[in-house]
UniProtKB/TrEMBL annotation:
<dbReference type="InterPro" id="IPR003439">
    <property type="entry name" value="ABC_transporter-like_ATP-bd"/>
</dbReference>
<dbReference type="GO" id="GO:0005524">
    <property type="term" value="F:ATP binding"/>
</dbReference>
<dbReference type="InterPro" id="IPR027417">
    <property type="entry name" value="P-loop_NTPase"/>
</dbReference>
<keyword id="KW-0547">Nucleotide-binding</keyword>
<feature type="domain" description="ABC transporter">
    <location>
        <begin position="241"/>
        <end position="471"/>
    </location>
</feature>
<dbReference type="Pfam" id="PF00005">
    <property type="entry name" value="ABC_tran"/>
</dbReference>
<keyword id="KW-0813">Transport</keyword>
<protein>
    <submittedName>
        <fullName>Sugar ABC transporter ATP-binding protein</fullName>
    </submittedName>
</protein>
<keyword id="KW-0762">Sugar transport</keyword>
<dbReference type="InterPro" id="IPR050107">
    <property type="entry name" value="ABC_carbohydrate_import_ATPase"/>
</dbReference>
<keyword id="KW-0677">Repeat</keyword>
<keyword id="KW-0067">ATP-binding</keyword>
<dbReference type="InterPro" id="IPR003593">
    <property type="entry name" value="AAA+_ATPase"/>
</dbReference>
<dbReference type="InterPro" id="IPR017871">
    <property type="entry name" value="ABC_transporter-like_CS"/>
</dbReference>
<feature type="domain" description="ABC transporter">
    <location>
        <begin position="10"/>
        <end position="242"/>
    </location>
</feature>
Length: 474
């Protein structure tokens, strides 16, 4: 191995970052060398995003040292970041978005090499992607936007990508596309690149990482080769963040009457958890959106809402960015905390504090802006908003994006408890593990329902078979 190949890309020694009294990162030491694929795991708020921003130069450390032995800065060292919150400009084309981070593209005809470069990167990582480099980003699905963001991260951009940081890169991708990315990550690291892979999907971490680093409360609590971890050992190292509220998930023995029925044949009964599955982009999100709109007023708030919506694309469809955490939760329950048409602030605070405790929202002050939270904690707020509502039907569009494994288990239990009380849930997810939590599953293919599975029929094998069988028949 040459000196260049063995020289660390980045070295952190006791690196810390404080925001006032909050120690977001508290003395982390880490070395990243060529060929490393580091799985970085921890609950939402553990310090992962802060660590990423120290490595990529977005933040300076409050104390400690960060060095790039072969370069003067993160950019010169070939450090790239692909963030969980997609950062593409929606009014620009795919090729024009590449130009933003590719300063070497100049002159009147720069769009031609930009198109060629982004298509080459997409073809390498996601064969058969079908994305047009001339398409405006706001016309793409969230999965396609994530693919473009990843392709820009790995593209040459006038230099060489040596360390690519992937923050929840598969959160919007189905299993097939996710596997394409994992194959590329392994190839990239084998060829001398390095990756920091942040994911709450522990199966992917075990599949792709050569080493796992566990963060908790801003500190590294475990670091060793992947094969020295077990799944349960990794979960135990991460610890738990949501408080035990003493509620046991109850399994409903029988369901009530049917309260949802669409023209496509999608149905749900009172107290039932119904899953929507299949390959991403085959009509599941559209079916849920139509159902929600059919049960919601388009111009005034309902005193008794027919449905409430939990968005997977929280930046576009979920959080109210100018409002506090408290107001983002309580907006769905204002009728419950109102007296004579005026909001009872004490009742509003009680509702938000209850859900902060139940779902483990990491903040010291619920009046802080919603954007002060990590992405996963923002998603917890959307869950709290939905479950605090009196709506009998909860519609969830791939809602677990960026939520850690511990919180997922807590949310599963809460959903089961609320269903046992008579709530009805329609749940689209790209994760088979989540779909298998449901009582009944509708598999979509080409905008139509290709299978209805119940009980023991709900398996990964049956879901995959139903996802492809209509295509084969055609």
């Amino acid at each position: 191995m040459s000196d260049h190949e063995s020289t660390p890309i980045v070295t952190l020694i006791d690196a810390a970052r404080h925001f006032g009294p909050v120690r977001a990162l508290d003395g982390v030491s880490l070395i990243v060398t060529p060929g490393d694929c580091i799985g970085l795991v921890g609950h939402n708020g553990a310090g992962k995003s802060t660590l990423v921003n120290l490595i990529n130069g977005g933040l300076a450390p409050s104390s400690g040292d960060i060095a790039f032995p072969a370069a003067d800065s993160a950019r010169q060292a070939g450090v790239r970041s692909v963030f969980q919150e997609l950062s593409l400009c929606p009014n620009l084309t795919v090729a024009e978005n590449l130009r933003i981070s590719h300063v070497a593209l100049k002159g009147p005809n720069w769009r031609r090499p930009a198109r060629a470069e982004i298509v080459q990167s997409l073809d390498t990582i996601f064969p058969g992607h079908g994305i047009d480099a001339n398409a405006e980003v706001d016309t793409l699905s969230i999965a396609e936007r994530q693919m473009v963001e990843i392709a820009i991260g790995f593209s040459p951009r006038g230099s060489t990508a040596r360390l690519v940081i992937l923050d929840e890169p598969t959160s919007s991708l189905d299993a097939g596309i996710s596997e394409q990315l994992l194959v590329h990550v392994r190839r990239f690291c084998t060829e001398g690149g390095a990756v920091i892979f942040i994911s709450h999907m522990l199966g992917e971490v075990f599949e792709v990482a050569s080493r796992i680093v566990v963060l908790k409360d801003g500190k590294v609590v475990a670091e060793r080769p992947t094969d020295e971890f077990t799944r349960q050992g990794l979960v135990d190292a991460m610890g738990h963040v949501a408080a035990d509220n003493g509620e046991a998930a109850e399994i409903a023995g029988e369901f009530g009457p049917e309260i949802v029925r669409t023209e496509q044949g999608l149905s749900a009964r009172r107290g039932e958890i119904v899953g929507l599955s299949g390959l991403a982009g085959h009509g599941q999100a559209e079916a849920l959106a139509q159902l929600y709109l059919s049960r919601s007023s388009s111009w005034h708030p309902d005193r008794s809402p027919g449905a409430v919506f939990v968005a997977g694309d929280r930046q576009r469809d979920g959080v109210l960015p100018l409002w506090s955490i408290l107001r983002n939760i309580s907006i769905s329950a204002l009728q419950q905390c109102a007296k004579r048409g005026l909001v009872d602030r004490a009742a509003e605070t009680r509702i938000s504090d209850t859900w902060k405790r139940r779902i483990g929202i990491r903040t010291d002050d619920m009046t802080n802006p919603i954007l002060s939270l990590s992405g996963g904690n923002q998603q917890k707020v959307l869950f709290a908003r939905a479950l605090a509502s009196s709506a009998p039907v909860v519609i969830m569009d791939d809602p677990m994006r960026g939520v850690d494994v511990g919180t997922k288990q807590d949310v599963y239990a809460m959903i089961r408890t609320e269903a046992a009380k008579g709530g009805t849930f329609l749940w689209y997810s790209t994760e088979t593990e989540e779909v298998c939590q449901c009582d009944r599953v509708f598999v979509f293919r080409n905008g139509e329902i290709s299978a209805e599975l119940t009980g023991s029929e709900i398996t990964e094998e049956n879901i995959l078979q139903a996802s492809f069988e209509m295509q084969e028949a055609s």
